[in-house]
Amino acid sequence: MKMTDAISASPTPASNSTQVNSPARVLIASLVGTTIEFFDFYVYATAAVLVFPHLFFPASDTNAATLQSLVTFSIAFFARPIGAVVFGHFGDRIGRKATLVAALMTMGLSTVLIGMLPGYDAIGIAAPLLLALCRFGQGLGLGGEWGGAVLLATENAPPGKRSWYAMFPQLGAPIGFILSSGFFLILAETMSNEDFLDYGWRIPFIASLALVAVGLYVRLKIAETPEFRKAVEKHERVAVPIEVVFRNHLRSLILGTFIAVATFVLFYLMTVFTLSWGTTPLEKGGLGYSREQFLVVQLVGVVFFGLTIPLSGWLSDLYSRRIILTLTTIAIAIFGFFYATLLTSGLTGAFLCSIIGLALMGFTYGPIGAALAAPFPTTVRYTGASMTFNLGGIFGASLAPYIATWLATHYSLDYVGYYLAASAVISLVCIRLSGREEV
């Protein structure tokens, strides 16, 4: 028998085979997990710019310390495909529910440990190494989280509502960002810079433990998805899902990866890089805003990010995901040519840049979940969707803040916009190459 032949499977527990998830339960369970996951992820992204260069990477050159910190930020993106393979395997073999719980615990534990790490002054080179290890754990958990959350939503969706249901996990991104940035903003307003660098930055990391407990409670209450239960009943599960994905669905994997590239580049330029460059002193080539000022700029932009996600999900079901992604990607390319001009046009320009960029992010991020999951059959969908999304993260996001910082430092901020426009062209070509059934 071939590796990809269906293998026998143990029957689903009776409670899971008869329990039906209500729409509210499905949407809350898919949303709460990604909110927690992205809260943890963005807490690190913010600290990687504001704290870690001082605490874990002491250097006389501020830009060098920031670049070293951003390298650890990128580690998670290389861990995410590994998480996609590991959690995807179990998600396609034993079920979406149990795998989602394990992914959440992996992410949460890694985040809490980061909040407890001593700095370079206390343990030397071990400090950045332990930071990198915990960052790897964050990426591993997130690599398994996203795909499962999207499938939890889409595999419970009624006909004609897949994009609408799939956008609910995506809402976890702006909500998690608002929570993490808001947390840092409150800390910045209520304590001195010395206290913040000493212990204040640790509070959001450790506090995430409470959010994880809430997420676990909600997810343990849901039942397995109907589509996965049917696959179990028909003995359709495969032995090694990743092998099936690479052998039978390689084209969909490659196209989906590069369809997602512009989404990732846009988001991490608008958040991590822009925060870093915006708060870099004028004498060092940055924009010279205070940390508090620029966190407010980003929070306003993220509100528009959150508003356009449901709008894009609704439009994608009304027209098609393909049309919405095509039009949005063209708009991202155009925005790239105005990025530097807006960002350097005073505080008003910075607000406009953040609002436009993150609104476009919502329009591309809303339908991307359903689009990346669509080409894969139920038996390998967890693995296929997770791998596609997380490979897109490697090519689009892992080094985006680093590349943008290098371009802005060695050339000018205009080249950061050109970099964004080039990524949009790549994604647009792949959208057009994919078939209608693949997006």
Shape: globular
| End-to-end separation | 32 Å
* CATH 4th-level superfamily: MFS general substrate transporter like domains
Tally of discrete structural domains: 1
Helix content: over 70%
Largest sheet: none
Number of strands: 0
Q: Which structural class best describes the helix and strand composition?
A: mainly alpha
Multimeric state: single chain
Spans of at least 5 consecutive residues with low confidence: 1-17
Please compute the radius of gyration using only Cα atoms.
21 Å
Mean pLDDT across the residues is 86
Q: Give the class-level CATH name.
A: Mainly Alpha
Layout of secondary structure:
Elements: H1 14-18, H2 23-50, H3 52-55, H4 62-93, H5 96-114, H6 120-123, H7 126-154, H8 162-190, H9 193-200, H10 202-220, H11 226-233, H12 241-248, H13 250-259, H14 261-278, H15 291-318, H16 321-336, H17 339-343, H18 346-373, H19 381-398, H20 400-410, H21 413-433
Protein name: Transmembrane transporter protein
Transmembrane segments: 65-87, 99-117, 123-143, 164-187, 199-220, 253-275, 295-316, 323-343, 349-376, 388-409, 415-435
GO molecular function: transmembrane transporter activity
